[in-house]
Amino acid sequence: MHQPAFLKPGDRIRIVSPAGKIDAEKVMPAVELLKQEGFEVLLGQHTFDRHFQFAGTDADRLNDFQEALDDPDCRAIICSRGGYGAIRLVDELNFERFRRSPKWLVGFSDITVLHARFQQEGFCSIHGPMTAFYLKDGVQTESYRKLMQMVRGNFSTDTFDAHQLNRGGHAEGELCGGNLSIVYSLLGTALAPDTAGKILFIEDLTEYLYHLDRMMHGLKMAGKLKDLSALLVGSFTEMKDNDSPFGQSVEEIIFEAVRDYDFPVYFDCPSGHIDENMPLLFGGQYSLTAQNGQVILTPKSM
Fold first, then answer.
1. I need a labelling partner for 64 at 20 to 30 A (CA). Which of 49, 142, 260, 290 fits?
2. Are 268 and 179 in a shared domain?
């Protein structure tokens, strides 16, 4: 998997809104922060447009993203937010000029669709925080600082506490996945992930427990779980249950779906719809293990 060049002072970053609409106050502080880092920052023409729930029409959002892909001086594309809408334009994107001047894609949630397209094109991308997550109470977040390290090529080992349902073991492989609802929605399409021999990362937000169960069994029936190197489970935030309860926790639902396999399973990776949204390099090689009550996620040969 190819990696774009890492960022250096003076490089151009473009911020675009390929999915849901967003208010300027959730973007402009990030613009100033990135400028202080020494980067040139350009906003897509339609970043703050509103077309029902979208940040502009499909055509306008497509034009902004395509312009960012084509820009030979742009070194990173940061999405302002997820929401919904990226899938409506992903098939129309043209990567011909991008291949001459590759750049990083940064985002998560609905941006999982675009990560899938980048990996289909043979390029790494960053599952990481978007503009509203760079500051909290006026202070730079840990996820923002880690993102800035990553785009500059400074990769570090991350650790997090082990969960009681973890299935331990050592694993190595390319990291793929993203938002589970999006990964599930891509089954049967050209963008469905090839998970064989890879570490699959999943996270989600405000889904019903029964639907989580449906998605996990859908992945299982599609053959996307059986040959994993490992399953890495991020945050499942504000999950919901019906008045008649499903009867299992998030972790129990996920573990049951992979019970028949023997690859390692690690829960509580601090990445997803949480303040501490640890950036992950999709398409990058990682090793994953546990030691002394800690899970250790290490990038390899970056």
1. 142
2. yes
Q: Report which of 24, 88, 86 is spatially closest to residue 50, judged by C-alpha positions.
A: 24
Report pLDDT digits (tens) over 230-266: 999 999 999 999 999 999 999 999 999 999 999 999 9
The answer to whether residues 192 and 244 belong to one domain is yes
The amino acid that residue 288 corresponds to is L
User: Residue 88 half-sphere exposure, CB side, CA atoms within 13 Å?
Assistant: 18
Containing H/E element for 211? helix 209-221
- Catalytic positions are 109, 203, 273
Residues 162 and 293 in one domain: yes
Q: In this structure, is residue 5 part of a structural domain?
A: no
Q: Which of 117, 124, 108 is nearest to 234 (CA)?
A: 108
Whether 239 is in a domain gets the answer yes
Residue of 180, 185, 199, 211 lying closest to 273 (CA atoms): 180
* Triad 80, 84, 86: Cα angle to 5°: 75
